[in-house]
Amino acid sequence: MRQLRGVQEGYDGHVAGWARTPREVGLLCGRAEYPFPADIVTSWRKIEPDIQAYLYFDGDQPIGYGEVWLDDDEDEVELARIIVDPERRGQGIGAELVRALLTPAIAAGHPDIFLRVRPDNAPAIRTYLGVGFVDVSQQEMDEWNAGQPLAYRWMRYAG
Predict the structure, then answer these.
(1) Total tally of structural domains belonging to the chain
(2) For residue 79, what are the CA distances in angstroms to 1, 10, 38, 60, 87?
(3) 73: domain range?
(4) DSSP letter string over the chain?
(5) Which pairing describes strands 133-135 and 51-58: parallel, antiparallel, or unpaired?
(6) Mean pLDDT computed over 52-77
(7) Is 67 within 8 Å of 115 (Cβ atoms)?
(8) Residue 72's CATH number
(9) pLDDT digits (tens, 9 = 90+) for 54-63
(10) Arithmetic mean of pLDDT, 109-113
(11) How many CB atoms within 10 Å of residue 19?
(12) Gyration radius of the chain over CA positions
C-alpha cells in the first residue's frame, strides 16, 4: 500500500541519493553540489518551520519525496523539491506523489497552490499538467522570476 508520511530521521540519504547526476541535483533544488550530501536534505526541514517534508512509501520502501511550503503571509502553498526514486521513475509514481502532496496542501486552507519547475524538466511538466496544474500568466511568471537564479515555469493548481 502506498502512502504519504511525514519525513522520519534516517531517510535523508535515500533522498539525496535519488539525485544521481549533477543535472538531477539542479532539477531537485538548484544546487550544483554532486554527489549531493544528505545533510542538506536534513537542513531543509530544519531551516524553515513552515516547510512540511514528506516521504511517499510503497509498503516500507520510500519511493518519493516532496515538500509543502506554507506561506500564511501570501495566503498560499507551494509544492517543492519533488523527486522519485530513479528505479521507480516512468511508472506514474510522480503523479501519485503530487496528488498525495495536494492533500496536506489543500488542508492548509490557503486558496492557491503553486509550484515552480525548470522549463527543461519535460517529464515533471507533463506530470504537473496531468495532475491539474496550469501555467500562471506570463506577467506573474516574470514578476515571480525577478531575483530567481533562473527563469522557472510557475504553475497553479487548477483542480
Answers:
(1) 1
(2) 23, 22, 20, 24, 23
(3) 2-157
(4) -EEEEE--TT-HHHHHHH--SHHHHHHHHS---SSPPHHHHHHHHHH-TTEEEEEEEETTEEEEEEEEEEETTTTEEEEEEEEE-GGGTTSSHHHHHHHHHHHHHHHTT-SEEEEEE-TT-HHHHHHHHHHTEEEPPHHHHHHHHTTSSS--EEEEE--
(5) unpaired
(6) 95
(7) no
(8) 3.40.630.30
(9) 999 999 999 9
(10) 96
(11) 22
(12) 15
Cα–Cα nearest to 44, from 59, 24, 63, 66 = 66
149 upstream amide cis, omega within 30 of 0: no
Answer yes or no: is pLDDT of 93 > 80. yes
Provide the whole-model pTM.
Answer: 0.94
pLDDT at 31: 79
Does residue 117 contact residue 125 with C-beta atoms inside 8 Å? yes
Question: What is the C-alpha to C-alpha distance for residues 76 and 107, in angstroms, rounded to an integer?
Answer: 12
The grid coordinates listed for 87 are: 528505479
